[in-house]
Design brief:
- It is a single chain.
- The strands form three sheets. A seven-stranded mixed β-sheet has the order 1-2-12-9-8-6-7.
- It folds into two domains: 153 residues, Rossmann fold; 91 residues, 3-Layer(aba) Sandwich (Rossmann fold).
- 37% of the residues lie in helices and 18% in strands.
- It is built from ten helices and twelve strands.
- It starts with 13 loop residues before the first strand and ends in a 5-residue tail after the last helix.
- By secondary structure, the chain is of the alpha/beta class.
Length: 317
């Protein structure tokens, strides 16, 4: 059976603001929800450690791109906080394909490592697709390997892709039903848009799904039809108020750096949604940062625990 996020509003983290006579806007905090979710992860990790199996996650990062380093550090720190063993393999941007593949092979064979991921994108001289296919499907905690993607498409996933799973948990635990709702997904990447659309359309979720992309005609009109609008385009503040139906739920997946001379670091983070303009029209919306991102990391760690059980033939906890 497909692995589903928890049902019901348990652990929901949201703040309600009155924005008009008919709309009470809820800020969906992934940070608060992920913190409560960590309690479950800690218990599962402790139970496995008590059986002599300490869950292990290995992250490979190539180069020194600042945003990537911050994200990887967050993954490693969260893993350690819930009681997992974590390994951060930092490789120079000049690493060869052969040397990178050797690291993946070593981690595939390491019994103390239950999850392996290689942070993308890689430098142009490296074949990221080949690296994805080399990761052991039983340790593919990103759910990028073609075998695991195939199981997902069949409705029989053993892992769920992290960001889509985080979005579904955020909706479910906030008491937002998707069944029968028209969900419009802006973006068709293999990381977010495509797998999310597959999950939402499957039995158990039962949403009506429209996937839009850069070549979609009438994009504004299509977005305005959404009961739930998911923005995963990678374009700063692309979604404006005129694209959102009053009372819609808006999930902003984007994390973008934009220049801001008034900011201490000379830039600010924003999503794919123009929050100030869109939020007053919504019934619920995720902030950036602090929305989907923390839930993505929580789902990565849940997948690592799934990997432990798969690799050791244990029943689901």
């Amino acid at each position: 059976m497909p692995h589903r996020p928890a049902a019901g509003p348990r652990g929901a983290a949201r703040r309600t603001l009155r924005t008009g006579p008919d709309i009470a806007m809820k800020i969906l905090s992934g940070t608060a929800l992920a913190a409560s979710f960590e309690d479950d992860l800690k218990r599962e990790a402790a139970a496995l450690t008590g059986q002599g199996i300490r869950p292990g996650l290995a992250v490979i990062q190539v180069g020194e791109e600042p945003a990537t380093q911050v994200y990887v550090r967050s993954k490693v720190k969260t893993a350690e906080r819930v009681g997992m063993h974590s390994v951060d393999h930092k490789l120079p941007a000049t690493v060869t394909q052969a040397d990178l593949e050797a690291v993946v092979d070593r981690l595939n064979r390491a019994p103390h490592i239950n999850g392996v991921l290689c942070q993308m994108p890689l430098p142009p001289h490296l074949d990221g697709g080949r690296i994805t296919r080399l990761i052991d499907p039983l340790k593919d905690v990103d759910c990028f390997h073609p075998y695991n993607v195939g199981l997902l498409a069949l409705g029989e996933p053993r892992f769920l892709p992290c960001t889509p799973a985080g979005i579904l948990e955020l909706l479910t635990r906030s008491g937002i039903a998707v069944r029968g709702k028209h969900t419009v997904v802006l973006g068709r990447s293999n990381i977010v848009g495509r797998p999310l659309s597959i999950l939402l359309s499957q039995k158990g979720w039962d949403a009506t799904v429209t996937v839009c992309h850069s070549r979609s005609e009438g994009l504004v009109e299509l977005a305005r039809q959404a009961d739930i609008l998911v923005a995963a385009l990678g374009k700063p503040e692309f979604v404006r108020a005129e694209m959102v139906k009053p009372g819609a739920v808006v999930i902003d997946v984007g994390v973008n750096r934009v220049a801001d001379p008034t900011a201490r670091r000379g830039y600010r983070l924003c999503g794919d949604v123009h929050f100030a303009g869109v939020a007053p029209r919504t019934s619920a919306i995720t902030p950036v940062p602090g929305g989907v991102g923390p839930m993505t990391i929580a789902m990565l760690l849940r997948n690592t625990l799934v990997g432990v059980r798969l690799q050791h033939g244990l029943a689901e906890g």
